[in-house]
TrEMBL record:
Residues 36-71 form the Zn(2)-C6 fungal-type domain. Residues 1-33, 157-191, 736-755 are annotated as: Disordered. Residues 1-23, 169-185 have a biased composition (Polar residues). SUPFAM superfamilies: Zn2/Cys6 DNA-binding domain (SSF57701). Gene3D superfamilies: Zn(2)-C6 fungal-type DNA-binding domain. One of its GO terms (molecular function) is zinc ion binding. It comes from the Eukaryota. Residues 157-168 have a biased composition (Low complexity). It holds the Pfam family Fungal_trans. This is Zn(2)-C6 fungal-type domain-containing protein. It comes from Cryptococcus amylolentus CBS 6273. PROSITE patterns: ZN2_CY6_FUNGAL_1 (PS00463), ZN2_CY6_FUNGAL_2 (PS50048). GO terms for biological process: DNA-templated transcription.
Amino acid sequence: MTSADRNSSWSNAASATPGTNDEPSTKSKKTRVHRACDACRKRKVRCEGPQNSQAGGKCPFCIQMGKACTYLEDTKRPKGPSKGYVTMLEQKCGRMKSMLYQASTTLNVASMLTFLQLCPSIDLESYIGTHVNCEDFNNDSYLDDLHSRGIPPYPALKPLSLPSPQSSTASYAPPSSNDTTSPESTAEGDNDEYRLTQTALVNSMHWLKVRDAHWRYHGKSSNAQLVMQIQDLKYQKGIKSDFIAEVGKAKREAFWEATEWERFIDTDGTEPLETKAWPERGLDQMLINAYFDKVDFHVPLLNRLIFQEQYDAKLWRTNEGFARLCMLVFANGSHFVQDPRVLWQDDSSTIAPNNKFSGGWKYFRAVLRMGHNIMQLPTLFDIQCLVLTCSFIHTSSSTPQRLTTVAALGLQSIQELGAHVSAVLAQWDPVERALYHRAFWCLYHIDRYGSATVGRPVAILDSEFDVPELADIDDEYWERQDSDGGGTQPKGKVSRVAFFIEISKVDRIIGRTLTNVYGIRTPVHVVVSKRAMATELDAELTEWAKNVPLALQWDPDCSNYSLLCQSAHMWAQGHFARILIHRIFVPPHPNTGTLEQLSSLTSCIEAAYAICGITDALLVRGRHENCPPGHAIPVILKLPSWVSGIILLLALYTTDLSQDEVHRVREGLVSCMRASQELEVLWQRSGKVTDFLERAVAEADLFAKGMAQKVTGPGVEIEGVSLEGELGRYLPKATPATPSSYLSPDAGKNDGKKTQQGLYDSWLRMSTFQSQLLNMDIPMRAREEMEEGIGDDWWAKMLGAQK
């Protein structure tokens, strides 16, 4: 039987009277569902059918009700609206919502009232389209009508002609002879006007149909802003024509469209994901859980629920950006999974030395092999991948100084999309906007942290963005349909991101310190000395410490171990910032520091001791919590702990210390070394820091031994120098050193040359070690010439000054 015959047979069977009981239907493999009569269909009740009735042609219901049992009505169900009709109706509602939101966010209350009063009969059809008729809807003709009305493709919105906040407020408010405008209100009005201009600019760029135009950000200094100013002037003169729309209509496509060769290289340099590198079922979820419990716990980038939904839906099969993100999640989570399948595997059968540190590198390699095309517009997934790349480089790479390079690339991508400007972010989906917030603040933190580590300028200044702080709410309480992207955190429950919000405040202080105190040139706007600026930053840091929420105050006996680890991270960052503020003012010569220099040295020393107290508390608590080896201290504390050791070693040579103070310095160095030894179990590069600290402890032992062999007189107390710093009050410390340990400049003058010589020897060793630590080695001959030059010129002069 042909296909036509089968269709004909099925059609005849469907149209046959239900009472017929032909032979083919009884032999059919499928049970036929008999049609209900017209009366039963109308009342929506089950029809037994005449085949089960003894009345010869009527169903039981029609017999009971005395109705004619007919089968005349059309059996076809009413056809619903077309897909195009539903889509256009949704877009029309979306345009209306965008118009209302744009008006409410760009105008204050008075401006909004004035706008509604002056424009009561605004032609909505010119902004959202005509009425959509379900019965005779034609998608092509409706699109042509939208184009004729100047309505750009969805989700873009035709520029809404709104009055400026200043003019509308003036027309609404009663006149006043003594009306004055404060600088704050003026700045707020400027921001409102800028948000309005930016919204109109982003929407109007659709007229030109430039590739990716909707997502490219154009700042205040761009030429696009001048074009928008022309459009605004035309509107003020009563000219209703849209300049950009006219350009779009008259443009010559040959000069505007992307060339064939440019489109051809859009995907060059990129390769699909190697599926063989994907972790096995079960292992993948183990790595995801490890990432969120250990990595995202300290750098909150992703929403766990959203990521899990996307992963369970297998988005990685169709979206390469998400696949790349998943591989980086696997790479970062591999350090915390004891499974040989996450380790590096090469073609040879030999096991590389230190293979236990290779966790995650095969996933990271798979990401690198996918490549990247700089011609492509960055996406949210791309920016999130850069954050995770920074996390992996910081913990696993031998070149951690690249951290700032990758973070700067991420911040530049943020700026390219305009995600650093609240006016642009306000137009996006609430969930997407919240994820961009997280990505930005993670990159901001990494940039400040990395720049302070290697002594480089920050990638973005605080004056160049207005991204709001992260919402203090856990992932499970996000309201995804909320226009503000917010939600409600239960009272009394500390969110997982609360500590990171406080860290962001410290990062702002670190950024200003790097710019104003360590900058190569003093900024023009800074009219005070670096010393005064440091004092101001220190006071701001102290004020931050006083205002930290009670739940995040340092308490080594905190019952919530997770909260203790986050609090330790936050306070270590705060004390690291304090060291950064003051260490530039540490006395450059032994026993010759001014009162201010000694005060800065005191601040650094006390901050170092505070960090030692944090790491000791985490080690003790980690043992009680049965943490596996290497898991008691977060790797993010590696830098603060190492800096603390450097400061304590520096204190040995900067001023003469008492035996008790030398003993305390040694104990602090031992604390730093214990922390580094804990970290090196998981993180190979921490072993370098351990080697440095072991030598530092040996130096302290030699220093103490030398002090025991000579008789030292009592010290001279310097008034006004207190080892109890303001920020140090918030952390437990060992027995503080006494102020009498700081001697006058004349004390120990006879031993100055020996001290300088020892400092020079230590400097040589530290310089070589630092070069190895940061993998910035220079040729041996060049290094010898450099050290020889420094010794002949500078050190000879310094040693000769003590004769």
